[in-house]
Amino acid sequence: MATSGLLSGSSVFAKTxxxxxxxxxxxxxLPPRQRRVLIVMDGTKDLATIAEAISRDELAQxxxxxxxxxxxxxxxxxxKMAESGANRPRQKDPAATPELTTSRTSLIQKQAxxxxxxxxxxxxxxxxxxxxxDFMTTTAQTYLGLLAADLIQRIERTKNQEGxxxxxxxxxxxxxxxxxxxxxxxxxxxxxTATLSGNAPELSRNHV
Length: 208
Description:
Blueprint (H helix, E strand, L loop, with lengths): L2 H4 L5 E4 L1 H9 L6 H9 L1 E5 H4 L5 H13 L3 E3 L1 H11 L17 H6 L5 H4 L7 H19 L4 H9 L3 H17 L4 H15 L12
Antiparallel strand pairs: 1-2, 1-3
Helix pairs in contact: 3-5, 9-10, 9-11, 11-12
């Protein structure tokens, strides 16, 4: 389904069974910001209304994550509209409700490896690549718990340096949004991007 359909200001989401379980029992350990968005997804409020109380960037990131992980789903009528919108050319309507923000890809790219750091990147040997993957998976397991499963699978499936660079943004965003990992997220990002660029001798796990 197109991201534009998901993030339309008129879109209305409702909690799934998984979402209701998280609210009732906190069984998936969502970070506070994502949990706050999940709470207000009651199947009646559209995103434009919710955006009056929650910043658009925060809301957009949370909606993309919660929908992707199965905590919320579009109401049936909105889902049909989003699907039909994905199959026809998009026209600008001055009176239409604007999208909340850009796509998940652009959100992740904001946290990705800076171009200046990658232009002259040195190829990593297999042991160093394995060290970076171990560092990313260990920090994800430590701070994300059950929510780390999909991210860890992506990291482990990656076979090369460029593949890891494409995942760094998602990994950093997840750590930044976690309760205990937020304070270390920027430091970890600096270490990983420097290592992937061939500019760091080792990764520090002092806080892991």
